[in-house]
Amino acid sequence: MTGPGVLVPQVPLARVSPADLAAVGDSRVTVLLVEDDDGDALLVEETLRDSGLAVRLTRARSLAEARRELSGEHGPPAECVLLDLHLPDAQGLDVVGQVLAVSPRAAVVVLTGLAEEGVGLSAVAAGAQDYLIKGVFEPTVLARSVRYAVQRRQIEQAAMALEASRMRAQENSRLERGLLPSPLLHGAGVQVVSRYEPSRSLGLLSGDFYDVVEAPDGTVHAVIGDVSGHGPDEAALGVCLRVAWRSFTLAGVTGTGVCELMQKVLVAERTGSEIFATVTTVELPPGMTKAKVVRAGHPPLLLRDPAGVRLVETAVGPALGLLPDGRRHWREDHVDLPAAGGLALFTDGLFEGRVSADGKRLGEDGLLALARRNAGRSAEEFVTALIAETRALSADHGGHSDDVALLHLEWNEQK
After folding, report:
1. 21 pLDDT more than 70
2. CATH value of 18-162 in 3.10.20.740, 3.30.420.10, 3.40.50.2300, 3.40.50.720
3. H/E element holding 328?
4. 359: exposed, middle or buried (C-beta count within 10 Å: 0-12, 13-18, 19+)?
5. How many helices (H) and strands (E) would you count in the chain?
6. Mean pLDDT for the stretch of residues 48-74
7. What is the CATH number of domain 180-411?
8. For residue 320, what is the DSSP state?
9. What's the pTM?
10. Radius of gyration of the chain (CA)
11. Confidence band (pLDDT; 50, 70, 90) for 369?
């Protein structure tokens, strides 16, 4: 048995442009000076003034005052904090952590004494963006340190946001992979090949769904469906319907009965009354020469036998969710099966791609022609060829603009 072929998208990484960084130097930087010594504070203020850097400077004389300034109570918090590590109410490297805890987005430049350069390096390791030695730095050095500290902090914040986004994307991908179907077959009488391509960007799931299970009596049940729409709500509803179908089928509900129950689930779970779903269910009893088929607004099937491929039209009822519940809308039909052959179930995204500049679609007849051209291939090659060739034909006119699901069931004479 071949597992589902799923197109796995790559998560693009956002970039911080040079223009974004240059804008920091062109705008007025809000700076909070945390310094209890008036002499040192005056020196920093004069140096900033001489540097020509456009700043809006605020001063705090203690960690408590700094916390109030950074809390946002008196306006937007500072972009850069010039921080002395010897304050009346806090001492040492712990001050850096406390400042960042209050204002995680702020850039921190530590101000140290001449004999404390090692402390400055430790402060950078603790989360500060830079350090300066009091009384030594020139105006240009201070201006450059403030600008670069703000830029580095912005880059760090962007990197953390990207990493968080990447982690969420990975978690979502793992979740979606876990919701993809895994055929439940006990014997080797029926082989399954499938392909599944969502149209929505970065998605692994779509409103299209399929599944295959084998009942205790050896009957193989298959379903394929298509929820109207292409968003995450439709993808979630598709998963819901697939799981509902599997549960009902394993509980012994089949044929039109499972369609009735699936319609109840759809009506209860859909986000709007306009949402509907097309569905085809197939039953392959062991040792039988006929397949039982129920179609609810869904496209026909492709039947493969030694003579070639043909399109099989069976009785079709309305899509799930279109008509009021409470009466039977669907009926069971039967398809004669060859001793060895295959059935291909598909969603309309496989044949609705445009293949010419005038908007002509491939259509069911065009799909049948492609299927016949590939009739002699193995099941795996047949499915791959249908996906590849329908995509190639529509590539210049929008490609597969809809979700695509293709499910192939193959059996031999010992079916």
Report:
1. no
2. 3.40.50.2300
3. none
4. exposed
5. 10, 19
6. 90
7. 3.60.40.10
8. B
9. 0.63
10. 33
11. very high
